[in-house]
Structure formats: structure tokens, C-alpha cells
Amino acid sequence: MAEDEYRFSANGELHCPYGRCDGSGWILNEENDGVVECECRQQRLARARVSGINSVIPKKFRGVSFDRPPVTDMDPNAVQTVRDWIGHLGNNLDQGRGLWLMGDTGTGKTTLAMLVSKEALKQNRTVAIYSMPSLLTRIRATYGAEAGEESYAEFFERLCEVDLLHIDDLGAEKQTEWVLEQLYSLINERYEREKSIVVTTNLTQDQLEQQIGPRTVSRLVEMCGESMIPMFGEDARHKPQLRDL
Ligand SMILES: Nc1ncnc2c1ncn2[C@@H]1O[C@H](COP(=O)(O)OP(=O)(O)O)[C@@H](O)[C@H]1O
Ligand SMILES: [Mg+2]
Ligand SMILES: [Zn+2]
Questions:
Q1: Tens of pLDDT along 127-151?
Q2: Chain segment 58-107, per-residue pLDDT in tens
């Protein structure tokens, strides 16, 4: 059992999400001195395989919670839809159902999406969290990989295999043929593998089609189905009195 098998637990500590083993992934049988594999072990291995993927909630959003501002100040319909989605998180991830938050800047889309990723990590799922521009930068970096370094194909495969792919600010990236192709292959691959995705975007569906192409958007629409959450309204960044209450 190599130490690095456990490195990627959600909170960075060794613990068993099922409370069945000591966090090592193995359950000791005192009677015959044998060991059996705990359910958590395969999950930890899967997590280790997706190393190199960003699974860290940005500091600003680490404390997000349904019980506190700003979430308590947000559109109650949007918040309820996210709460319900999280209530069925395991099923949603297993069935590749996604969540799409669209609307104006400063309405809480990123905050709500972080609640989803936070819960997925808490439930020991693998999550990749990227803003669209940072994801593209990360993909570009794999292109110049030296021998022994991670190749594009490896990174792409990891992005396709995580339980949840979280893309913030879809459509904010500069569009080139290359960008559109990267995005399409990623979304299409996850669509075919029935893997879940959470996206936020400032664009409407029509605008997004113009920006990233109708093929990619139609996959997203199908994946997110009922869970396309409109969040329009004033920019809360310009309403400090609300935020500071
Ligand atoms: N409805 C709201 N009421 C008060 N503050 C909010 C509200 N929505 C968002 N905020 C705050 O505004 C800022 C932007 O939120 P964010 O989730 O990044 O919005 P978006 O992704 O929609 O641009 C954050 O500081 C957040 O805490
Ligand atoms: Mg945002
Ligand atoms: Zn265990």
C-alpha cells in the first residue's frame, strides 16, 4: 500500500468515508489475520489516477453554505434547484446528469456551482474544477510535454473520467478553431460516457451557441435537462450593503 494512494481524499486527511476501515483502504479480520478490501479503496485509487487534475475549491468559496450569505440572499428558486440537485448528487453523478447556471455577472452562479463541487468532494467523488480560460491554459501546457511528463492524451482522459467536471465561465474564453474543438471533444466524450458536468456562463443559450457552437451546446442541454438555472438580475458586487449584512 503506497502512501500516495490516499493523498487525494477530499480534506487531505486519511479517513474512511464509510467508517469501515482505518483509512488505509483495508479491513482487518482479527479472527484469521486476513485483510479484505474496503469499499473506499477503489475510490481512492480512482482519485489517485486523476491526480494532476485541479480538485481544489478556491479559497474565496471554501466556506460556502446554504445557511449563510451570500447564498441566503440569492434567488430562492435557483437556490432550491441547486439544493434539490445536491440532494440527489450520487444519482445525478452516476447517471451523468448535469447542472447549468446561466445569467448575469454577480448573481451567484459561481458560488452555487462551488456548493455542488464541495459536496461532491465531501462524498469522496472525483472532481475537476476549472474556469474555461484556465482549463485551456492547462491543456496547452500538456502540448509541450517532455518524455515522462503528462501528455495531452493522459490529461484529456482524466478530464473525461472524473465523476464531475466543473467549468466556470463557459464562453468567456477567446474563441479559436482550436478552442472550439477542444471543448467539443471534451463535452462530447463526457456526454457519450454519461458523465456529469456543472457549468456556469454569463451567456444565454443563443449567445452560447454563437460563441461555442450549436453541437456543443446541444450536448450540454441534453445533459443538463431540467437543471438549466436562469440567474438574471443586478450585480451583487455593486451592492455591498447586501453582501455585508
Ligand atoms: N444574491 C446575492 N446577494 C449578495 N451577494 C451576492 C449575491 N450573489 C452573489 N453575491 C456575491 O457577489 C460576488 C459574486 O458572486 P459569484 O458567485 O461569483 O457570481 P457570478 O458567478 O454569478 O458572477 C460574490 O462575492 C458573492 O458572494
Ligand atoms: Mg462566475
Ligand atoms: Zn474504508
A1: 999 999 889 888 888 876 666 666 8
A2: 889 988 999 999 999 999 999 999 999 999 999 999 999 999 999 999 99
The atom of ligand 1 lying closest to the CA of 237 is: 12
User: Is this structure's pTM higher than 0.70?
Assistant: yes
Distance 33 CA to ligand 2 centre (A): 53
Yes or no: say if 167 and 203 are a contact pair by the CB < 8 Å rule.
no
In the chain, the domains with their CATH numbers are 3-49 (no CATH), 59-243 (3.40.50.300)
- Sorted by sequence, the CB contacts under 8 Å of residue 37 that are 6+ apart come out as 25, 26, 27
State how far the Cα of 188 lies from the Cα of 184, in Å rounded to an integer. 6
Radius of gyration, CA atoms only, the chain:
19
**CA–CA separation, 142 and 125 (whole Å):** 24
H or E element, residue 138: helix 132-143
What separation in Å is there between the alpha carbon of 23 and the centre of ligand 3?
5
